[in-house]
Specification:
heterodimer, A: mainly beta, seven-stranded mixed β-sheet, four-stranded antiparallel β-sheet, B: mainly beta, six-stranded mixed β-sheet, 0% helix
Chain lengths: 116, 114
């Protein structure tokens, strides 16, 4: 039973390029969350998605960032025209279809994005 | 605005000692307080969690103490082992239908010397 899978593990982009981060949730999970961890900071919530729906994107920067979770395939976090300040670790988490009050989220190993 | 403040930033403990990490929160709507453990190159993993209707929860060598009136909670690791060396994050969630949105502290890097 594979856990949350993220790829790539490391991604290097030059300023102005696009970054695509992928997340496959745990088997049977249909809720996906993206968090960003800046150096020396805790994880910050970005977006919560269910299949084909964005439930809460209150933590997403207003420009250049987008996320999707299609009916088939992994969830994608897309960053257009990356800048150096986008360098961070991006973590994806997933939870079962009917989260209980605990709403335990299972995290992937993250994608470390470096913008040159 | 940082809603969950965590201290210390780093901690060094001898094997067999007690590690204590503290967190304070501001949002009184929070109703679920998990602790996550993160090893280098890995994602955070849930370690233990507590709700504010209890003052303490123990699982093995790990104990959460919760003080609702002070809006503080802490993680105690008894008989600390070198394998416990990791970064620990406290978190909080709940209230207003957004029980999925984890708010994390900045983390504590724990080093347990042999």
């Amino acid at each position: 039973n594979a856990g949350v899978m993220q790829n790539p593990r490391h991604l290097v982009r030059r300023r102005g390029q696009e970054a695509r981060l992928r997340c496959s949730p745990m088997k049977g999970h249909s809720h996906v969350y993206w968090y960003r961890q800046l150096p020396e900071e805790g994880l910050k919530f970005m977006v919560y998605l269910q299949k084909e729906n964005i439930i809460d994107e209150s933590g997403m920067p207003k420009e250049r960032f987008s996320a999707e979770f299609p009916k088939e395939g992994p969830s994608i976090l897309r960053i257009q025209q990356v800048v150096r300040g986008d360098s961070a670790a991006y973590f994806c988490a997933s939870s079962p279809p009917v989260p209980d009050r605990k709403n335990i989220q299972y995290f992937g190993a993250g994608t470390r994005l470096s913008v040159l | 605005q940082q809603q969950v403040k965590q201290s210390p930033q780093s901690l060094i403990v001898q094997k067999g000692g007690i590690s204590i990490i503290n967190c304070a929160y501001e949002n009184t709507a929070f109703d679920y307080f998990p602790w996550y453990q993160q090893f280098p190159g890995k994602g955070p993993a849930l370690l233990i969690a507590i709700r504010p209707d209890v003052s303490e929860k123990k699982e093995g060598r790990f104990t959460i103490s919760f003080n609702k009136s002070a809006k503080q909670f802490s993680l105690h690791i008894m008989d600390s082992q070198p394998g416990d060396s990791a970064t620990y994050f406290c978190a909080a969630t709940g209230g207003g239908g957004s029980n999925y949105k984890l708010t994390f502290g900045k983390g504590t890097l724990l080093t347990v010397n042999p």
